[in-house]
TrEMBL record:
The protein's name in its UniProt record: 12-(S)-hydroxy-5,8,10,14-eicosatetraenoic acid receptor-like
Origin: domain of life: Eukaryota
Topological category with respect to the lipid bilayer: Multi-pass membrane protein
Keyword field: G-protein coupled receptor, Membrane, Receptor, Transducer, Transmembrane, Transmembrane helix
Signal peptide span: none
Name of the gene: LOC115386909
Keyword rRNA-binding part of the UniProt annotation: no
The keyword Membrane is assigned to this record: yes
Length: 339
């Protein structure tokens, strides 16, 4: 059953264009919450009690866990709204607070993921130089500074009244409201597009370095490549599609075609729901970035027989890579040595 919004083309009352679409999205978020809550709780437990992140210089990873946990905490509210055929709460305080939390989570996840990628970049591409990211990650005050830096970029979601948490291009606004909404849109795109460009550059340089390195360094480089590729996968699946859909939604909204906007809204909200899967994909980044965390997590929650199989498979893969690397080494000319 579709709700007709074209009768009131002015303020957007945030009813869902299609109840069936948003009911399906609510079930998707139920699945994300059901998997994400125990997964992130288990990751938090390992980081604090088994891995001791402050001793293993994994403060950046821990901050991503905190950001993911904040995201998981927001999902029940979004589920409630979608099941009641609305895109947001009728309470302005709830609406702004929820959007603030989602923006803060997204900004923190992106900031710390890029910090991890830059750490791998400096360690691999410029090994002889001082790694500023590695120096900064040793102190928790840098993480506190990043969170505080994100606050002024997220506050515009709370300081103005806007319909459906999103009035840009929808209603005639005052100059103050228009500037605030424009700033929010600019922040939304900049915090995704700019880090993605940086990530593409970092990945390309690391892969290029991997091809030119000697045999003895290839194992380390493969780990760095896997870590950066995992971050790129999170960006490609979770963040980049919703940025493209957001740009399309704003373009359609300016055109004034209500039917096209209803479709664009559903596509955008669907991709936003897909972006919430970063709380499920980020643990893969932890495993690629730090093998110590992977070992601690498996030893805590993985059954003994499965740990043995994984250990045997890892040993076999490592031995095969070593043999392949030895075979690829240029052999010395024994005839010239005898001569």
């Amino acid at each position: 059953m579709a709700l007709n919004q074209s009768s009131d083309p002015g303020p957007d009352h945030c009813q869902t264009p299609s109840n069936s679409t948003y009911l399906t999205l609510s079930w998707v978020m139920v699945l994300e919450f059901s998997l994400g809550l125990p997964l992130n709780l288990s990751v938090l437990y390992v980081f604090i009690f088994r891995f001791r992140f402050w001793k293993n210089r994994s403060v950046f990873l821990f901050n991503i866990v905190v950001a993911d946990f904040l995201l998981v905490a927001c999902l029940p509210v979004k589920i409630f709204h979608y099941r009641h055929a609305v895109r947001r709460s009728d309470n302005p305080a709830v609406c702004r607070s929820l959007l603030f939390m989602l923006f803060l989570n997204r900004g923190a996840s992106i900031a710390f993921l890029i910090a991890l990628s830059l750490d791998r970049y400096f360690g691999v591409v410029h090994p002889g130089r001082q790694n500023p990211v590695r120096f900064l990650r040793r102190t928790p005050w840098v993480s506190v500074f990043i969170w505080l830096l994100l606050l002024p970029l997220t506050v515009p979601t709370m300081v103005t009244t806007f319909e459906c948490c999103n009035s840009h291009g929808r209603v005639k606004e005052t100059f103050y409201h228009d500037v605030t909404d424009t700033f929010r849109e600019v922040v939304f795109f900049v915090q995704i597009v700019v880090p993605f460009v940086v990530l593409v550059y970092v990945t390309a340089r690391i892969v290029s370095r991997l091809r030119r390195k000697t045999v003895g360094e290839r194992t380390k480089l493969r780990r760095a490549t896997c870590a950066v590729m995992a971050v790129a996968a999170v960006f490609s699946v979770c963040f980049l599609p919703c940025a493209v859909a957001r740009a399309a939604l704003l373009a359609v909204r300016v055109s004034g075609d209500q039917a096209a906007e209803d479709v664009a809204v559903q596509v955008y909200d669907s991709l936003m729901v897909l972006s919430y899967t970063d709380c499920l994909l980020d643990p893969l980044v932890y495993c690629f970035c730090n093998s110590g965390f992977k070992d601690a997590y498996l030893s805590t929650f993985c059954p003994t027989f499965l740990r043995r199989r994984l250990s045997a498979a890892s040993t076999t893969t490592t031995a095969a890579a070593t043999v392949s690397s030895m075979n690829s080494c240029p052999k010395k000319n024994t005839h010239s040595k005898l001569a």
